[in-house]
Design brief:
- The protein has 413 residues and is of the alpha+beta class.
- The chain is built from 10 helices and 17 strands.
- Strands 11-10-9-12-13 form a 5-stranded mixed beta sheet.
């Protein structure tokens, strides 16, 4: 399988080189069909490439063609080079011929009225926890089941990360139906509390334990003291990578379970709209204008990225399409959920909120989640003046405090 990874990476990089050398005004860059023809000639001349599986290499070219087609829509831009020990993986297409069906369950027919036959992956169940799949050139390979039913897919992808092999089947799951009756929930995302719900629940993403963090620091110190390029340095960094991969696995598992719970129990889910890319931007600055408090900002960025905000929002939207909304973040933390008064002095601390107008007190994250559930965010609306009638528009971004009525004593004649 490592040889399949090397062949797929080699073919991908050749395709990237072809398109990198192409310039406007010259002959058009070769497409998928032309690249497959060139691959056949290369396999005839190169013994190392001929040893590998042709289907795996052609799938790498097909993946490259799809990446080129979707380079503007996907947001990733042009396909880039793949490196050894970083991009280790290959994709396999099914070999069994099975009849295809429409979404309603009826058989899929072609223009001549015949049953359309498609490809399917060969998967066999071994027991309740394990199954096996046929990989070309490797035979039957066992893998651990993460779902109760066997995957019915046309392709699957095998990857190698931090000393572990992973297999992912290309399946589009059905969306989770909305519950009846369901509630509208608001979610405020933070660093101390990963997700504060408007109904009072507080969900925290699992992190590494104190002992595991100490182990990471120990292996990093040993790697720093080891000679450059030595096996000991690589071994220590591999141990650090395994510990960090464990943290990423916990975060992904928590996001999957939490998003499924939200999609099954809530009719409408509202998230505080956050630009995570901008929030986690480095404060290093430039040589001419260096930034300030760079180390503190780097620690905050690591804390934000360790919470899985973006993954939770994306997976919830995929499992409950059409039932997830984004509420603008401004003023959600400064607005009182009881009276609607906006005042920066109401936020006493990171966890305490005490309205200066009505005296309402609660957890600051829970107060913001209630505002998000109500859809109150963005530009402040007119608020009732404290202790006086009438309505006055807010005049400041950080404070919507209005002038208090002045008491004037007039002496009697």
């Amino acid at each position: 399988m490592l040889l399949h990874c090397a062949h797929a990476r080699y073919v991908w990089n050749l395709a990237v080189e072809q398109h990198a050398c192409w310039r406007p005004g010259r002959r058009s860059a070769p497409g998928f069909a032309e690249q497959c023809r060139q691959l056949t000639e290369a396999r005839r001349e190169n013994a190392w490439l001929a040893v590998g599986n042709a289907d795996v290499q052609q799938q790498a070219l097909q993946d490259f063609a799809k990446a080129r087609t979707a380079r503007f829509a996907s947001g990733f831009g042009e396909p880039t080079w793949r490196r050894k020990h970083v991009h280790e993986g290959f994709r396999v297409i099914g070999t069994d011929r099975v009849p295809e069906s429409n979404p309603d369950g009826s058989p899929k027919l072609n223009a001549k009225g015949k049953q359309v036959m498609g490809r399917s992956v060969v998967v066999q169940r071994l027991n309740r926890r394990w199954a096996r799949v046929k990989v070309p050139g490797c035979g039957w390979v066992r893998f651990r089941l993460t779902r109760t039913e066997l995957p019915q897919a046309k392709t699957f992808r095998v990857t190698f990360r931090t000393g572990r092999w992973h297999i992912a089947f290309a399946i589009v799951p059905d969306p989770i139906p909305a519950p009846e009756p369901g509630e509208v929930i608001g979610i405020d995302r933070g660093v101390k509390i990963t997700a504060a719900l408007s109904d009072g629940r507080r969900l925290n993403c699992p992190q590494l334990t104190t002992r595991e963090r100490a182990q990471i620091r120990k292996h990093q110190r040993r790697a720093a003291r080891a000679p450059k390029g030595s096996d000991r340095k690589r071994a220590e960094y591999a141990k650090v990578a395994r510990l960090k991969a464990r943290e990423a696995d916990r975060r992904k598992d928590w996001c999957e379970k939490t998003s499924t719970m939200l999609a099954r129990t809530c009719r409408l889910i509202r998230f505080e709209k956050l630009n995570i890319t901008t929030m986690t931007r480095s404060a290093k600055g430039t040589v001419e204008q260096p930034g300030t408090r760079v180390r503190q900002k780097a620690g905050l960025n690591r804390g934000i990225l360790a919470q899985g905000w973006g993954l939770l929002r994306r997976r919830t939207g995929e499992k409950a399409p059409g039932r997830v909304e984004d509420v603008p973040a401004p003023y959600t933390s400064l607005r009182c959920s009881a009276c609607g008064w906006i005042e920066k002095d109401s936020r006493k601390s990171q966890a305490e909120f005490a309205c200066v107008s009505c005296g309402f007190t609660c957890n600051a994250d829970e107060n913001a989640a209630v505002n998000v559930a109500a859809g109150q965010g963005g530009i402040p609306r007119p608020r009732r003046a404290a202790g006086a009638g009438g309505v006055t528009a807010a005049t400041s971004r950080s404070s919507a405090r209005e002038p208090q009525p002045v008491r004037v004593e007039i002496p009697l004649p």
